[in-house]
Each structure stands twice: as structure tokens, then as C-alpha cells.
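Practice problem 4.
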């Protein structure tokens, strides 16, 4: 009854959150076994969670970075680093998304923020609109894989696993995806005889490499000073920040300070300086310092608008979480999750077979449901099976999020698809066709991440 009402409401065109909450209420009224006010109680308790406080702050940090002119700095840095390669702007597109993923946490922010700059630049340099849209869509999936990540926060809360460990687990898979995408760009460049898009310039390249070295050396230097020399941690961090800002003023770096966002987040969480929720607040403070005080590209009027946009997005996300909470509870209470678990375990007890079936299910669900809703529905169903089969829940979280990100690229509900169709002024049909070749590196990454869990779990096991 519950599933039938939910599918009926979805088919009627209702938003997924209303369909989940409505079907739960209708079922309770029909069954008359539980008071209807339980719906409200379960929805409120579903969002009464400390880890969920990270959601609005990560959204705010991404919006601040997106509106403070940071995207242009990231694009110029990526252009200096790889723009001189054959098919240069394609590589810039991927590298820019890798960097921006460390600030936005969502695929849609990546597509709407950097995507606008990248697609215009690629069209101006003679690339086909379809190729520009395809590589932008594929690289946008990196947003939630490379930390920070909103889907990881939701999954961590639902599956009761460490959000910090999930963040660390996304680094190597994100790097793998970026490499496969850049290899795909190189293939198209070789096939079509494309050259470089900017002239090779030793000075510009060396400056970009110096910025990269600073980003790598800065946290390493802090670690050596704190762990080996025994200096006080907080005083060392603040002193190192002062040196970093001084170097930025002297050398006029393009993107060192923005790129430091994920470095500060991951470093703070792995050293125990702050929790993921406190890290989200730190990311907001960092974004405000850069936008309002350092670069002075963010006005107070823009800041108010960003805050209002964040409130709107947060309300949408948390309403979906609240509705999915009661729906997931109803699935468990009515025995649906136990029945599915028993059926799957009767069908197979091989983890690799289950992972194959789970991938097919999540790819299908991702085409119809927004990732937050999909995670909150699928976790109560699939996580008990993972526990029974001995599948690591951090590894499975990566697999689930990547599946749902690929689903964002397809109709009928793919939000990245619709965003890029609007940005590129293409029909949804042409945009879908443009994205199809880029499923090869994405699905290749999915297979590797699914069946080689050591790639995912190596970093979390080192620090957690």
C-alpha cells in the first residue's frame, strides 16, 4: 500500500518530498495502527541531528566562493597549468572542477559556477558546443566526490559512519576520475587534431607550479613544526596563515588561498582540530575573509543575497531529508526493508553480485530522484544488506554517491543536465546526446571504485 501510494503521487507530478510525506500519512490513516501525528514527530526528529548542521554552512561556503569571483581565479590558474596541452581547455575544464569541488560540495554548483565560464571559453576557441557541454557535465560529478561533500554528510548521518572518513575516502577516487576524464580529452584531441589553446609560457607555468608547491608544502610544514618540533598547534597554524597571506600579497598568486579551503578542512578534521560541522563553519569564515576582506570582490549587498539563496536551498534539502526520514521509517516499520534484505540474501550471498545489482538499482534511481532523497530512501534498504555481507559502509557510501551523481546527467530528473542545457542554450535532447560519450570514463571509474575498495579505504584507514 505504502509503495503504491508513493508511486501514484510521484506519477501525478508531485515533488518527491511531498510524495514521501504524503504517502506515509495516507498509509497511517488507512492502517489506523499509529496516530497520524507520528508523521510530524518523525520528520522533526529526522533533521534533529548535529551532523546536519554542516549542510547550510557548506552550502553557504560554496555560494560565497561562487559569488566572490573565486571561479575566475581558479579558471586562470588551471589555464596556466594545463591550458598549453593539446585540447587545453578540455583539461582546464577538468582541473578547474577538481579545484572547485574542494569548495562547492555539489555537482550543480560546479556546473552552474565554473560551467558558465568554461563553456563560453571553449566555444570561443572553436570547440563544438556538444563537446564543451559533455566535458563540463562529466567533470561536475567531481563536486560531491572530492571533499567537502553534501551527499557525504547526508549519507554519514543516515548510515552512522564518520563524515571525516568519508571525506578522506573521496580524495583518491576523485583523482582517478579526473585522470580518466583528462585521458578522454587527450583522446579526442588526438582524434580531431586539436592543438593547444594558449601559447606555452615558462613564466606563467612556473608561477602555477610554485602555487601548487605552496599548497602542498604549507600543510606539510605545519605538520613538521607541530609533530616533530613540538610547537603549539594553534599558534603554528595562525603563524603559517600570516606567512601564507604575506606570500600571496608579495607574489600575487592566482588561486593559492581558495585552494587552501579543502586543505584546511581535511587537515582540521584529521588532526581533530574540529568536527565536520565545525569545519563547515570554518569554510564559511574562510570564504568571507577572502571575499569581503582580502580580495574585496564580495559586497555586503551580495552577501545578503547569498545568505537568502542559502536559506532557500537549505530549506529544500532539509525538507527532503525530513520527508525521507518518515518514509524510511515507514518502510522499516512495514517490513519492506527486511523483505528486500531477505530476498537479496536468498538470491545471492556474494558481495560482488550484490554490488553489481546495487549499482544497477542506484543508477536507475538516480535518474528519477534528487540525490538527497535517493540517499535517505536507499540507505535503510541497502545498508543492512551491506552489513550482512561484510561490505565496508564507507566504501559503499562512495559507490552510492558516485552512482547518484551519474544519475544527475540523465533525464527525466537530471539537474546537471538541465542546468547545462540552459547555460549552453541547447535542447535537452542534444545535451543528453553530448553527455553520452562521457559515461565511458565515469562508468569505468565506478567499476574500479566498486571492485577495488582499497583505493577508497586507504586514506581513511591511515587517519581513522
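Answer key:
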Amino acid at each position: 500500500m505504502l509503495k503504491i501510494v508513493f508511486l501514484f503521487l510521484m506519477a501525478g507530478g508531485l515533488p518527491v518530498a511531498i510524495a514521501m510525506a504524503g504517502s506515509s500519512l495516507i498509509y497511517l490513516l488507512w492502517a489506523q495502527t499509529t496516530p497520524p501525528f507520528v508523521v510530524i514527530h518523525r520528520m522533526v526528529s529526522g533533521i534533529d541531528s548535529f551532523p546536519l548542521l554542516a549542510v547550510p554552512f557548506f552550502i553557504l561556503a560554496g555560494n560565497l566562493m561562487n559569488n566572490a569571483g573565486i571561479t575566475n581565479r581558479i579558471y586562470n590558474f588551471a589555464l596556466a597549468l594545463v591550458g598549453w596541452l593539446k585540447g587545453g581547455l578540455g583539461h582546464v575544464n577538468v582541473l578547474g572542477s577538481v579545484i572547485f569541488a574542494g569548495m562547492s560540495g555539489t555537482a550543480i554548483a560546479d556546473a552552474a559556477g565554473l560551467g558558465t565560464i568554461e563553456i563560453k571559453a571553449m566555444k570561443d576557441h572553436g570547440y563544438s558546443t556538444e563537446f564543451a557541454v559533455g566535458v563540463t557535465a562529466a567533470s561536475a560529478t567531481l563536486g560531491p566526490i572530492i571533499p567537502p561533500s553534501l551527499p557525504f554528510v547526508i549519507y554519514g548521518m543516515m548510515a552512522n559512519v564518520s563524515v571525516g572518513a568519508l571525506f578522506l575516502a573521496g580524495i583518491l577516487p576523485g583523482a582517478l576520475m579526473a585522470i580518466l576524464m583528462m585521458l578522454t580529452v587527450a583522446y579526442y584531441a588526438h582524434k580531431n587534431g586539436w592543438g593547444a589553446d594558449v601559447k606555452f609560457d615558462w613564466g606563467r607555468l612556473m608561477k602555477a607550479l610554485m602555487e601548487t608547491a605552496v599548497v602542498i608544502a604549507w600543510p606539510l610544514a605545519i605538520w613538521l613544526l607541530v609533530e616533530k618540533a613540538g610547537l603549539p598547534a594553534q599558534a603554528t597554524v595562525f603563524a603559517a596563515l600570516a606567512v601564507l597571506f604575506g606570500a600571496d600579497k608579495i607574489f600575487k598568486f592566482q588561486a593559492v588561498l581558495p585552494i587552501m579551503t579543502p586543505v584546511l578542512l581535511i587537515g582540521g578534521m584529521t588532526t581533530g582540530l574540529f568536527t565536520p560541522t565545525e569545519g563547515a563553519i570554518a569554510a564559511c569564515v574562510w570564504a568571507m575573509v577572502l571575499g569581503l576582506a582580502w580580495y574585496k570582490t564580495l559586497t555586503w549587498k551580495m552577501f545578503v543575497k547569498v545568505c537568502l539563496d542559502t536559506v532557500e536551498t537549505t530549506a529544500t534539502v532539509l525538507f527532503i531529508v525530513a520527508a525521507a526520514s518518515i518514509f524510511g521509517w515507514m518502510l522499516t516499520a512495514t517490513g519492506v526493508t527486511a523483505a528486500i534484505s531477505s530476498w537479496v540474501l536468498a538470491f545471492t550471498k556474494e558481495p560482488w553480485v550484490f554490488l553489481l545489482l546495487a549499482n544497477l538499482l542506484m543508477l536507475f534511481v538516480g535518474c528519477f530522484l534528487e540525490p538527497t532523497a535517493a540517499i535517505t530512501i536507499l540507505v535503510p534498504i541497502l545498508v543492512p544488506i551491506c552489513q550482512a555481507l561484510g561490505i565496508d559502509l564507507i566504501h559503499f557510501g562512495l559507490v552510492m554517491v558516485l552512482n547518484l551523481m551519474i544519475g544527475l546527467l540523465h533525464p527525466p530528473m537530471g539537474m546537471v543536465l538541465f542546468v547545462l542545457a540552459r547555460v549552453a542554450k541547447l535542447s535537452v535532447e542534444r545535451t543528453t546526446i553530448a553527455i553520452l560519450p562521457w559515461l565511458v570514463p565515469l562508468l569505468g571509474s565506478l567499476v574500479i571504485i566498486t571492485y577495488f575498495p582499497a583505493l577508497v579505504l586507504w586514506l581513511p584507514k591511515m587517519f581513522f
